[in-house]
């Protein structure tokens, strides 16, 4: 929101419904007094009322049925799309529900998909965060934009490009998972990869950074030879730690979520290893910033690790390609593009 305010030629207002605190926030998030923010905050019990009070020229809202009211307002609305209906259904299906529950999940995903397609058609524009949303919904929008959501700034990408890295110190490849310990992010597959590499006798370390509901199960499965670290402050801790302590970032997400960690590791010169979901598949096939294996196939990930241990130069090469990609798609560049897109929608009205 601060980035929007810095770039938008006018006032930026955050409009929201007072739903209380549900704890569903990202790692490292903090609550702030609204009076300390560089933009105005308007909270109401009714979305249409809040939007009318904001008196906006254009609305930017989530691509979710809860926000269909924005499409009935007199001002144009652009939607931010992230996770397609098919990917949203993956985590609950991964839990192996009973057949009747599975059928309800699939039916719900189909209804959800039709709602999202209809919203994309009605909105003045669609900002697709990553390839999963782009492939699913851009064709339905009159004015779509593909962007990459990342916290990594231009200065951080440039600093990483000037910094030499020592790979595989002491002959061990240093693997890390970073993110929430939830089913969709696949942290359990990172632990299974550790077991597969150990069975093959491949010298390595694995560190998991984050927290979440799966942490007790992960710790029980991992044993004492996997390191667990608490969430880090991104700017002051995480960036330096990844650059200095990780050879390959292991992100075996089972859904095609537009993970900023893919981009942030890549921008620091650290290639990404994960599953062949829509989001990572496109990043790897188009920009060569890492490797993918078939979904849920831990042995394929172990094969890739074994091959790069024999050729560490491949880690460096893919890390450099990721850094080059992020020199064009860092935080600053992406917000410039998003603002230009919104201004273009207004200019066309």
Automatic annotation (TrEMBL):
GO MF terms held by the record: glycosyltransferase activity
Family annotation (Gene3D superfamilies): Glycogen Phosphorylase B
Record Pfam families: Glyco_trans_1_4
TM helices/strands, residue ranges: none
Protein name (database record): D-inositol 3-phosphate glycosyltransferase
Organism field: Microbacterium allomyrinae
